Amino acid sequence: VQLVESGGGLVQPGGSLRLSCAASGFTFSRYDMSWYRQAPGKERELVARITSFGGSTDYADSVKGRFTMSRDLAKNTVYLQMNSLKPEDTAVYYCNARYYAYNYWGQGTQVTVSS
Predict the structure, then answer these.
(1) Environment class of residue 41 by beta-carbon count within 10 Å: exposed (0-12), middle (13-18) or buried (19+)?
(2) Which of 2, 44, 52, 67 is the most exposed place for a label (fewest CB within 10 A)?
(3) Residue 78: CB atoms within 10 Å
């Protein structure tokens, strides 16, 4: 099982980034997929989730209206489009896949929002 995140980097406030998470080794379509983030000295928090059935999404209040999560079932990939980035969005972003007791994490990708 692998979850490989990419797309992180340094961006100025107000800028945009798109994160990708490529999945392999499991039946991607069965899993709820999520993005979490963890800032220094803080707990890991849920940012966005997309359900396996129907592909509905929900978001943390702090990112609603700015972030959009999507998935491509043909590519076994989920995305997180992040717009209007703020310094407080700075964190390591992790991809998560969950199906009942099966719970997988990626290695994380750093996002830094700074001028």
Answers:
(1) exposed
(2) 2
(3) 28
Q: State how far the Cα of 111 lies from the Cα of 96, in Å rounded to an integer.
A: 17
Using CA atoms of 113, 83, 63, 74 in order, give the dihedral in degrees to the nearest 10: -110
How many residues appear in the chain?
115
Residue found by looking up tokens 């700075």 in the block:
90
Cβ proximity of 35 and 45 under 8 Å: no
111: helix, coil or strand? strand
Question: In this structure, are residues 93 and 5 in contact, taking their beta carbons and an 8 Å threshold?
Answer: yes
| Segment 23-82, tens digit of pLDDT | 999 999 999 999 999 999 999 999 999 999 888 999 999 999 999 999 999 999 999 999
Closest C-alpha among 36, 38, 31 to residue 59: 36
In contact, 68 and 81? CB cutoff 8 Å: yes
Which pair of tokens denotes residue 30? 């069965």
